[in-house]
Amino acid sequence: MQRETLISKLHQQKTVIKNLEKKGVCLNEMQDVEMKELMSACESEIMKSFPDPNSFQLF
């Protein structure tokens, strides 16, 4: 791959990433339910791994 092509593709990827960061993550209703179920199923494991509620790693 030529240098110019690589630079162009990297620039495009950075633009896409910035746009996604601005938009945030949007879940549809089904994905939202699945995420809530997953988080509740994993909550006990997370609390075992990070018992300090003020831990930055928890977030």
Instruction: Please give the share of residues in helix.
Output: over 70%
CA-based gyration radius = 19 Å
Broad structural category: mainly alpha
* Topology pattern, helix = H, strand = E: HH
Q: How many H/I helices?
A: 2
If you average the pLDDT, what whole number results?
A: 78
Shape estimate: elongated
Low-confidence stretches: none
Please give the domain count.
1
- Main sheet? none
For the termini, the CA-CA separation is 39 Å
Strand content: under 5%
- What is the β-strand count? 0
Describe the structure.
The protein is mostly helical and 59 residues long. The chain has one domain (3-48). The protein contains 2 helices and no strands. The radius of gyration is 19 Å and the shape is elongated. The model has no long low-confidence stretch (mean pLDDT 78).
Fold topology:
Elements: H1 3-23, H2 29-49
Summed up:
The protein is mainly α and 59 residues long.
Descriptive labels:
single chain, about 70% helix, elongated, about 60 residues, mainly alpha
